[in-house]
Amino acid sequence: MRIQSTNSNFIREPMAAPFGFKGSYLTELWQSIAKISTADHTGIGVGVQSVLWSDAAVFSSASQSGGNAYMFAMSEYALKLIEGMDFQDPFTLLDEIFPKVYAYGKQITGRSDLRKTFALNSLVCVDNAAWQLYAKEQQQDDFLKLVPEALRTPLMGRQKALCSIPLVTYGMDLEAVKKLVADGHFFLKIKIGSDPEKDGDRAKMLEWDKNRIREIHEAVKDLTTPYTESGHIPYYLDANGRYDSKERLSELLEYADKIGALERIAILEEPFPEDFLEDVSDLPVRLAADESAHSDEDAIQRIELGYKAIALKPIAKTMSMSLRILDEAYKRNIPCFCADLTVNPWMVDFNKNVAARIAPLPGMKIGVLESNGAQNYANWEAMKSYHPLFGTAEFISTRNGLFQLDEEFYRTSGGIFCDAPFYSSAVE
Questions:
Q1: pLDDT tens digits, residue range 105-125?
Q2: Which terminal Cβ of the chain has fewer Cβ within 10 Å, N or C?
């Protein structure tokens, strides 16, 4: 397949309120759009740029718009690179352009230590467009059949429903947390690692985290759910690399044990910075790698350090790279799950195609999928109408905390290969 032309654009989507994690806050997320055309077909791909998630140092060193401009420039650079290029499939295309886009990102940001995740985040829209184009060229809209046979084994499941995991941000009050549970949500992702006085004091962070876990645990500890083996509501703590030592994290976990919350922690995601390379197998919780598992090689390294789960992010690290990460984790009996990047409704179904086919997390009776866009975008309802199957597909929305996956979902692959007129019009 020879790529004849490309185009790109972006849409600025405001948050409903300042969105806090990694000790900082953002107020909007840019929705990047890529168009890739051959002589016969066109693929449209959408991405969501999260500068704070992918490289907090870039976020803090530039304005919010400046950081987004860097990332969008990298998407645009990638599209220019592939004009006139022949490609076999999305995997080979990513292999060809990633090193060049990563080097370009280092150049324009002036950061020799730019995180690989920043480059991968910039390539999501390009990779998604390549997947759609590949599907059209192959005249195949079954996601599983488009995945190379060597990578299919972990994807042979077929969930009937997925637990929708909401996000409990720094600023969410307890009444809002209780409402999430009352609305049917039974797996809470809780952001920890706050910088309460904006002075970088880790001791204050630890005390804030202790108090946060205590108050949420007290609010929901007596509630039950039929979807976990224990019957309790599990907690998914996300530290985004804010802890600087095992000793400090151990103090948090000892406190959680003291109040009866430790056994409820199903996942503790990315507690340490990327360059923290100590063995963590002795910690009494299932640690999950997220940002640090940029690639399949990085995921293997984290597993060897004692991480016992991997957060897959097809919507943040590209579908192509995420499937390779999944394969390596599967070979080592490491469970995976799909985490969100606060993406738009159409992109939720890119994540859903993987989440629907992998095994449930230990302790869960059904699969899981984090999706917090409905909580955090100001224009979520309007954004739902941009989904190509809006108005006809029930699997787009949750009901009682669940995404129901019917035959229509699997037949259409969640609509990820369908034409999306709203996004197409933005790159005409």
A1: 999 999 999 999 999 999 999
A2: C
